[in-house]
Amino acid sequence: MRLMTLVVLTILSTFSIRADATEFTFTAIPDEDESQLKTRFEKVAEYLESQLGVDVRYIPVKSYSAAVTAFRNNQVQLAWFGGLSGVQARRLVPGSEAIAQGYEDQFFKSYFIAHHSTDILPSESFPNINGYSFTYGSKGSTSGRLMPQFFIERNLGKKADDVFSRVGFSGDHSRTIAQVQAGAYQVGAVNYKVWDRALANGTVDLDKVKVIWQSPAYPDYQWTVREGLDDTFGDGFKAKLKEVLIGMSDPELLNSFPRKSFVEAENLDYQPIENIAKAIGLID
Predict the structure, then answer these.
(1) Which of 45, 64, 115, 214 could covalently link to 140 via disulfide, CB atoms 3.0 to 4.6 Å apart?
(2) Secondary structure (DSSP) of 17-38
(3) Of the candidates 191, 184, 226, which has an alpha carbon nearest to the alpha carbon of residue 209?
Protein backbone atom coordinates (compact mmCIF):
# COMPACT_ATOMS: atom_id res chain seq x y z
CA MET A 1 0.00 0.00 0.00
CA ARG A 2 2.82 2.39 0.91
CA LEU A 3 4.52 1.56 -2.40
CA MET A 4 1.31 2.32 -4.33
CA THR A 5 0.91 5.64 -2.49
CA LEU A 6 4.52 6.50 -3.30
CA VAL A 7 3.97 5.73 -6.97
CA VAL A 8 0.80 7.89 -7.08
CA LEU A 9 2.56 10.79 -5.35
CA THR A 10 5.48 10.50 -7.75
CA ILE A 11 3.12 10.57 -10.74
CA LEU A 12 1.25 13.58 -9.34
CA SER A 13 4.53 15.35 -8.62
CA THR A 14 5.76 14.71 -12.14
CA PHE A 15 2.47 15.93 -13.60
CA SER A 16 2.66 19.08 -11.48
CA ILE A 17 6.16 19.85 -12.69
CA ARG A 18 5.11 19.41 -16.31
CA ALA A 19 2.04 21.55 -15.80
CA ASP A 20 4.15 24.33 -14.29
CA ALA A 21 6.63 24.03 -17.12
CA THR A 22 3.90 24.77 -19.69
CA GLU A 23 2.56 27.83 -17.87
CA PHE A 24 3.56 30.99 -19.67
CA THR A 25 4.36 33.82 -17.26
CA PHE A 26 4.96 37.52 -17.74
CA THR A 27 5.49 40.66 -15.72
CA ALA A 28 5.60 44.42 -16.15
CA ILE A 29 7.53 47.29 -14.64
CA PRO A 30 5.45 48.95 -11.88
CA ASP A 31 5.35 52.39 -13.47
CA GLU A 32 2.13 53.55 -11.81
CA ASP A 33 -0.51 52.70 -9.19
CA GLU A 34 -0.36 48.97 -8.36
CA SER A 35 -4.14 48.39 -8.49
CA GLN A 36 -4.28 49.79 -12.03
CA LEU A 37 -1.45 47.49 -13.10
CA LYS A 38 -3.21 44.42 -11.69
CA THR A 39 -6.43 45.24 -13.54
CA ARG A 40 -4.58 45.99 -16.77
CA PHE A 41 -2.33 42.97 -16.93
CA GLU A 42 -4.78 40.34 -15.70
CA LYS A 43 -6.90 41.30 -18.73
CA VAL A 44 -3.80 40.96 -20.90
CA ALA A 45 -3.19 37.49 -19.41
CA GLU A 46 -6.73 36.45 -20.34
CA TYR A 47 -6.22 37.72 -23.88
CA LEU A 48 -2.88 35.92 -24.31
CA GLU A 49 -4.29 32.70 -22.89
CA SER A 50 -7.22 32.75 -25.34
CA GLN A 51 -4.92 33.38 -28.30
CA LEU A 52 -1.92 31.18 -27.45
CA GLY A 53 -3.68 28.09 -26.12
CA VAL A 54 -1.52 27.82 -22.99
CA ASP A 55 -2.03 28.80 -19.37
CA VAL A 56 -0.85 32.40 -18.90
CA ARG A 57 -0.17 34.12 -15.59
CA TYR A 58 0.73 37.73 -14.82
CA ILE A 59 3.27 38.00 -11.99
CA PRO A 60 3.31 41.45 -10.31
CA VAL A 61 6.58 42.87 -9.00
CA LYS A 62 7.35 45.70 -6.60
CA SER A 63 10.11 47.50 -8.50
CA TYR A 64 11.76 47.93 -11.87
CA SER A 65 14.80 45.99 -10.68
CA ALA A 66 12.54 43.15 -9.50
CA ALA A 67 11.07 42.91 -13.01
CA VAL A 68 14.57 42.60 -14.47
CA THR A 69 15.53 40.01 -11.84
CA ALA A 70 12.41 37.92 -12.53
CA PHE A 71 13.28 37.93 -16.22
CA ARG A 72 16.92 37.02 -15.58
CA ASN A 73 15.93 34.12 -13.29
CA ASN A 74 13.40 32.74 -15.80
CA GLN A 75 10.53 33.36 -13.39
CA VAL A 76 8.89 35.08 -16.37
CA GLN A 77 9.37 34.52 -20.08
CA LEU A 78 7.91 37.85 -21.22
CA ALA A 79 8.04 41.34 -19.76
CA TRP A 80 6.61 44.76 -20.51
CA PHE A 81 9.74 46.81 -19.94
CA GLY A 82 10.67 50.43 -20.29
CA GLY A 83 13.54 51.31 -22.60
CA LEU A 84 16.24 51.12 -19.90
CA SER A 85 14.90 48.07 -18.03
CA GLY A 86 14.59 46.25 -21.36
CA VAL A 87 18.20 47.00 -22.21
CA GLN A 88 19.29 45.82 -18.75
CA ALA A 89 17.30 42.58 -19.04
CA ARG A 90 18.55 41.71 -22.52
CA ARG A 91 22.14 42.31 -21.46
CA LEU A 92 21.64 39.82 -18.62
CA VAL A 93 19.94 37.20 -20.81
CA PRO A 94 21.78 37.03 -24.16
CA GLY A 95 19.56 36.02 -27.04
CA SER A 96 16.48 37.71 -25.60
CA GLU A 97 14.56 39.96 -27.97
CA ALA A 98 12.35 43.02 -28.04
CA ILE A 99 9.48 41.88 -30.28
CA ALA A 100 6.74 44.52 -30.00
CA GLN A 101 6.24 48.06 -28.82
CA GLY A 102 3.35 50.49 -28.56
CA TYR A 103 2.93 52.67 -31.62
CA GLU A 104 3.63 55.68 -29.38
CA ASP A 105 6.75 54.06 -27.92
CA GLN A 106 8.63 54.80 -31.12
CA PHE A 107 8.56 58.49 -30.15
CA PHE A 108 7.96 58.67 -26.41
CA LYS A 109 8.29 61.82 -24.28
CA SER A 110 8.89 62.96 -20.72
CA TYR A 111 7.10 65.91 -19.18
CA PHE A 112 8.77 68.16 -16.65
CA ILE A 113 6.15 69.38 -14.19
CA ALA A 114 6.30 72.09 -11.53
CA HIS A 115 4.37 73.16 -8.44
CA HIS A 116 2.53 76.47 -8.86
CA SER A 117 4.69 78.13 -6.17
CA THR A 118 7.74 78.02 -8.46
CA ASP A 119 6.18 80.44 -10.96
CA ILE A 120 8.08 78.62 -13.73
CA LEU A 121 6.25 79.25 -17.00
CA PRO A 122 5.73 76.58 -19.66
CA SER A 123 8.30 76.95 -22.42
CA GLU A 124 9.62 75.25 -25.55
CA SER A 125 13.12 76.05 -24.29
CA PHE A 126 14.55 74.03 -21.42
CA PRO A 127 13.44 75.74 -18.19
CA ASN A 128 15.69 77.25 -15.56
CA ILE A 129 15.23 74.70 -12.78
CA ASN A 130 18.48 75.45 -10.93
CA GLY A 131 18.15 75.44 -7.17
CA TYR A 132 14.74 73.78 -6.88
CA SER A 133 13.92 70.44 -5.26
CA PHE A 134 13.37 67.73 -7.87
CA THR A 135 11.97 64.20 -7.98
CA TYR A 136 12.50 61.49 -10.53
CA GLY A 137 10.25 58.43 -10.72
CA SER A 138 11.91 55.04 -10.25
CA LYS A 139 15.69 54.83 -10.40
CA GLY A 140 15.29 52.40 -13.30
CA SER A 141 12.75 54.45 -15.26
CA THR A 142 13.50 55.61 -18.79
CA SER A 143 10.95 58.42 -18.94
CA GLY A 144 11.15 59.25 -15.24
CA ARG A 145 14.90 59.09 -14.68
CA LEU A 146 17.27 58.19 -17.54
CA MET A 147 16.07 60.63 -20.18
CA PRO A 148 15.26 63.47 -17.74
CA GLN A 149 18.78 63.24 -16.30
CA PHE A 150 20.21 63.25 -19.82
CA PHE A 151 18.19 66.33 -20.84
CA ILE A 152 19.05 68.16 -17.62
CA GLU A 153 22.78 67.57 -18.00
CA ARG A 154 22.81 68.30 -21.74
CA ASN A 155 20.86 71.55 -21.39
CA LEU A 156 22.32 72.90 -18.16
CA GLY A 157 25.90 71.76 -18.70
CA LYS A 158 26.44 70.21 -15.28
CA LYS A 159 25.69 67.04 -13.35
CA ALA A 160 22.05 66.75 -12.34
CA ASP A 161 22.98 66.33 -8.66
CA ASP A 162 24.61 69.77 -8.80
CA VAL A 163 21.50 71.42 -10.22
CA PHE A 164 18.98 70.89 -7.43
CA SER A 165 18.67 71.75 -3.76
CA ARG A 166 17.29 68.26 -3.09
CA VAL A 167 16.74 65.17 -5.26
CA GLY A 168 14.31 62.31 -4.67
CA PHE A 169 12.93 59.18 -6.33
CA SER A 170 9.18 58.80 -5.98
CA GLY A 171 9.10 55.18 -7.19
CA ASP A 172 6.56 55.62 -9.99
CA HIS A 173 5.00 58.29 -12.19
CA SER A 174 1.70 58.51 -10.30
CA ARG A 175 3.57 59.30 -7.08
CA THR A 176 5.74 61.87 -8.86
CA ILE A 177 2.61 63.75 -9.92
CA ALA A 178 1.14 63.50 -6.41
CA GLN A 179 4.35 64.69 -4.73
CA VAL A 180 4.83 67.70 -7.00
CA GLN A 181 1.13 68.60 -6.79
CA ALA A 182 1.38 68.48 -2.98
CA GLY A 183 4.53 70.62 -2.97
CA ALA A 184 6.72 67.90 -1.46
CA TYR A 185 8.99 68.55 -4.45
CA GLN A 186 8.95 71.68 -6.57
CA VAL A 187 9.76 70.03 -9.91
CA GLY A 188 9.60 66.48 -11.28
CA ALA A 189 9.77 64.38 -14.44
CA VAL A 190 7.02 62.02 -15.57
CA ASN A 191 5.94 59.69 -18.34
CA TYR A 192 3.66 61.81 -20.56
CA LYS A 193 1.15 58.95 -20.93
CA VAL A 194 0.66 58.66 -17.16
CA TRP A 195 0.25 62.45 -16.90
CA ASP A 196 -2.33 62.54 -19.71
CA ARG A 197 -4.32 59.69 -18.16
CA ALA A 198 -4.23 61.30 -14.69
CA LEU A 199 -5.42 64.55 -16.25
CA ALA A 200 -8.27 62.75 -18.02
CA ASN A 201 -9.19 60.95 -14.78
CA GLY A 202 -9.39 64.22 -12.86
CA THR A 203 -6.57 63.46 -10.42
CA VAL A 204 -4.45 66.43 -11.54
CA ASP A 205 -5.21 69.89 -10.14
CA LEU A 206 -3.88 72.34 -12.74
CA ASP A 207 -4.08 75.14 -10.17
CA LYS A 208 -1.34 73.34 -8.23
CA VAL A 209 0.84 71.60 -10.84
CA LYS A 210 1.51 72.12 -14.54
CA VAL A 211 3.68 70.88 -17.39
CA ILE A 212 6.56 73.30 -17.97
CA TRP A 213 8.49 71.42 -20.69
CA GLN A 214 8.18 68.37 -22.89
CA SER A 215 11.21 66.47 -24.10
CA PRO A 216 12.24 65.49 -27.61
CA ALA A 217 11.14 61.99 -28.65
CA TYR A 218 13.00 58.77 -27.80
CA PRO A 219 12.21 55.00 -27.92
CA ASP A 220 10.73 53.55 -24.75
CA TYR A 221 8.44 50.68 -23.68
CA GLN A 222 8.52 47.28 -25.34
CA TRP A 223 7.60 43.61 -24.91
CA THR A 224 10.78 41.55 -24.48
CA VAL A 225 10.92 37.73 -24.58
CA ARG A 226 13.54 35.37 -23.19
CA GLU A 227 15.69 33.25 -25.45
CA GLY A 228 14.65 29.59 -25.76
CA LEU A 229 10.91 30.23 -25.88
CA ASP A 230 10.31 27.75 -28.72
CA ASP A 231 12.28 25.07 -26.86
CA THR A 232 9.82 25.28 -23.97
CA PHE A 233 6.52 25.95 -25.72
CA GLY A 234 7.07 24.47 -29.18
CA ASP A 235 8.31 25.60 -32.58
CA GLY A 236 6.74 28.82 -33.74
CA PHE A 237 5.57 29.92 -30.28
CA LYS A 238 7.64 33.12 -30.26
CA ALA A 239 6.41 34.09 -33.73
CA LYS A 240 2.83 33.42 -32.63
CA LEU A 241 3.31 35.49 -29.48
CA LYS A 242 4.63 38.40 -31.53
CA GLU A 243 1.68 38.11 -33.89
CA VAL A 244 -0.78 38.06 -30.98
CA LEU A 245 0.77 41.09 -29.28
CA ILE A 246 0.83 43.13 -32.48
CA GLY A 247 -2.69 41.93 -33.27
CA MET A 248 -4.12 43.23 -29.98
CA SER A 249 -7.05 45.34 -31.15
CA ASP A 250 -9.58 45.37 -28.31
CA PRO A 251 -10.05 49.10 -27.51
CA GLU A 252 -10.41 48.34 -23.79
CA LEU A 253 -7.13 46.43 -23.69
CA LEU A 254 -5.28 49.05 -25.73
CA ASN A 255 -6.70 51.88 -23.63
CA SER A 256 -5.42 50.24 -20.45
CA PHE A 257 -1.82 50.81 -21.57
CA PRO A 258 -2.83 53.33 -23.11
CA ARG A 259 -1.63 52.69 -26.66
CA LYS A 260 -3.14 53.21 -30.10
CA SER A 261 -1.80 49.84 -31.25
CA PHE A 262 1.29 47.63 -31.06
CA VAL A 263 3.94 47.41 -33.77
CA GLU A 264 7.09 45.40 -34.39
CA ALA A 265 10.23 46.12 -32.39
CA GLU A 266 13.79 44.85 -32.36
CA ASN A 267 16.77 45.20 -30.04
CA LEU A 268 18.46 47.71 -32.32
CA ASP A 269 15.60 50.17 -31.75
CA TYR A 270 16.87 50.62 -28.19
CA GLN A 271 20.54 51.18 -28.95
CA PRO A 272 20.15 54.94 -28.32
CA ILE A 273 18.85 54.17 -24.82
CA GLU A 274 21.82 51.90 -24.10
CA ASN A 275 24.23 54.54 -25.39
CA ILE A 276 22.73 57.24 -23.17
CA ALA A 277 22.70 54.96 -20.11
CA LYS A 278 26.39 54.28 -20.64
CA ALA A 279 27.17 57.96 -21.23
CA ILE A 280 25.63 59.10 -17.93
CA GLY A 281 26.93 56.12 -15.97
CA LEU A 282 23.74 54.12 -15.29
CA ILE A 283 25.18 50.99 -16.93
CA ASP A 284 28.73 49.94 -17.74
Answers:
(1) 64
(2) HHHHHT-EEEEE---S-HHHHH
(3) 184
